[in-house]
Amino acid sequence: MIAAAQRLVRRPSDRGATLRLNARSRAERDGVVESLEKPLLWKASESAIVICDMWDDHYCNSSVSRLEAMIPEMNRVLRSARELGVAIVHAPSGTMDVYAGTPQRERMQAAPHAEPPVPIAKWCHLDPASEGALPIHDADPCDDEFPSEAKRAWSRQHPDLAIADEDGISDDGQEIFNYFAQNGIANVVLMGVHTNLCVLGRPFGIRQQVRLGKNVVLARDLTDSMYDPRDPPYVSHERGTELVIEHIERYWCPSIIGNDLTVAADLT
Question: Structure pTM?
């Protein structure tokens, strides 16, 4: 059994904190897709942030530059969210050996098994029954001027992204589901990279969390796609990422901005 000190510990003063998320979604009305915003009130103690694949390196140099530019803001948001009582799970896929034996890794492994309501897939592919085609072509997604061979270049999470003592580390969908069940987590925020690939498809990603019945949002300013503007629909990289976010807002879950996770709602 895991030691009590390794469990997720929240300060008593934080247990009553509520997050007010300005959730943006999209819906079709009379043939026109409209953007809608409405507030979501989430108890911080029932909420978690999953950080997807913020690796230390990548075969696509442009992708690394954009990831590193996000880290200072991501650290700020995570620091404030922790103080409010939100659980943080780091999920740098394929690098769990680096974290073996750490309290953050062991607390995820030690959570008792919880039976999921649907199977947890190794990868959640695009589902034509639930969503339209992705709005970008991403078969050759690196936007470097001279793209390198697509191969593994990472070995761990980026060292500049802070991992706190009370955080968790896992890339296993079942482990993360177990941990959420153990700690009463009903609400999940996804951030990290890449929006059109791992953020949607990983066994802890958006598609899977929605299918598991979680309340899910994407932090749209703390994510980045893999898209090359030399491919359809021939828009800027930034617009390509926006199109993927709009796809998620329409078919899967709302999006928020990271700052929504930093301040407790005033419910008086």
Answer: 0.93
Helices then strands, counting H and E runs in the chain, come out as 6, 8
Q: What is the pLDDT of residues 73-114, one digit of tens each?
A: 999 999 999 999 999 999 999 999 999 999 999 999 999 999
Kindly report, residue by residue over 240-253, the tens digit of the pLDDT: 999 999 999 999 99
Rounded to whole angstroms, the Cα distance separating 191 from 235 reads 23
Type and span of the H or E element at 207: helix 206-211
In the block, residue with structure tokens 């079942």: 174
Domain layout of the chain by residue ranges? 46-145+153-261
Biggest CA-to-CA distance, the chain: 56
End-to-end CA distance of the chain: 41
**78, 83, 89, 92: CA torsion to nearest 10:** 30
Please give the Cα distance from 32 to 53 (Å, whole number).
34
Task: For domain 46-145+153-261, give the CATH number.
Answer: 3.40.50.850
Phi, psi of 3, rounded to the nearest 5 degrees: -65, 150
